[in-house]
Design a protein that fits this description.
Blueprint: H1 10-23, E1 29-33, H2 39-45, H3 48-55, H4 60-65, E2 67-68, E3 78-79, E4 87-92, E5 95-100, H5 106-111, H6 120-128, E6 134-138, H7 145-152, E7 156-161, H8 171-184, E8 191-197, H9 209-226, H10 241-245, H11 258-268
Parallel strand pairs: 1-5, 1-6, 7-8
Antiparallel strand pairs: 2-3, 4-5
Helix pairs in contact: 1-2, 1-11
Length: 271
């Protein structure tokens, strides 16, 4: 989940697709937060995020470092293995919705020290989470070694966009980023699954008004130039999305129609 422009709904859509895949599609799901802002982690864990920080439970920091550091309970470094306990958001039988959460000190912890290995996340997932039906990685809106790590661990990219002024400012940067990765990793197949329009209201119009119309022309043009498909179903503007992120499905408003896009997305990636 990536767009090199902030505020387009990456974390929200990541959380909603993870919950929808687990609850409605019967998938075994892993969500990974590699954004130091940790919005996906806070959205899925809700009030539990504070205790996660206080108890210093394993996070994406430990995945990149490759071990769990010493603690009062365990005075020696501990290796990360398939039995390492991350956060379980929900489980049914052998299926679960798991989360590898982020921490606010993520970028300082990694980027301020020795440059992390961009292949470490892919190695960890291939060794321990190959059984998952769906793995969603929520990326930061700036390119870094963490972006490269996400590419190494992925086969498809989903690009959220809002139909507003400067809607596609991140598109050329993302296309160049993907091309650079492909050129440097010719055996790795990674494609753009599609662009999802995360709607908003303008000028009081229920379909966005002239501002959206102008932005959509730009979005269609830039997407066609890059060869990126646009999903037919948009994410309609709704105040219900934050509730859905937390697993609260009461009084959702237009958010109830999120399933239309979700079903189109899952079908597009073979799920």
């Amino acid at each position: 989940m990536i767009n090199l422009k902030g505020g387009v709904g990456k974390s929200t859509i990541s959380a909603l697709l993870a919950r929808r895949g687990f609850s409605n599609r019967g998938l075994d799901v892993l969500a990974i937060d590699i954004d130091p802002q940790a919005n996906l982690s806070q959205g899925l864990m809700h009030r539990g995020y504070a205790s996660f920080l206080t108890q210093q439970r394993p996070s994406i920091v430990e995945v990149f470092n490759g071990y769990i550091p010493p603690s009062k309970a365990n005075p020696v470094p501990t290796p990360l293995t398939a039995t390492t306990s991350f956060e379980t958001i929900g489980s049914v039988g052998t299926r679960s919705l798991e989360l590898i959460p982020s921490r606010f000190d993520f970028s300082d912890n990694l980027l301020g020290a020795v440059r992390p290995d961009p292949r470490s996340l892919a190695r960890f997932l291939s060794a321990n989470y190959h059984h998952k039906d769906l793995i969603i990685i929520d990326c930061a809106p700036t390119e870094s070694v963490l972006t490269t790590a996400a590419y190494h661990a992925s086969s498809s990219v989903l690009v959220p966009v809002k139909p507003e002024f400067f809607a596609t400012i991140g598109f050329p940067l993302l296309q160049q980023s993907l091309n650079n990765f492909r050129n440097q990793n010719r055996a790795h197949s990674i494609s753009v699954a599609g662009v999802v329009v995360n709607n908003a209201f303008y000028h009081g119009g229920n379909d966005g008004g002239p501002e959206k119309a102008r932005a959509m022309l730009e979005i269609r043009s830039e997407s066609a130039r890059n060869g990126w498909p646009i999903y037919q179903n948009e994410m309609l503007h709704s105040r219900g999305y934050p509730k859905m992120m937390r697993g609260d499905n009461s009084y959702l408003g237009n958010a109830e129609m999120f399933g239309r896009f979700a079903n189109e997305f899952f079908s597009s990636v073979g799920l």
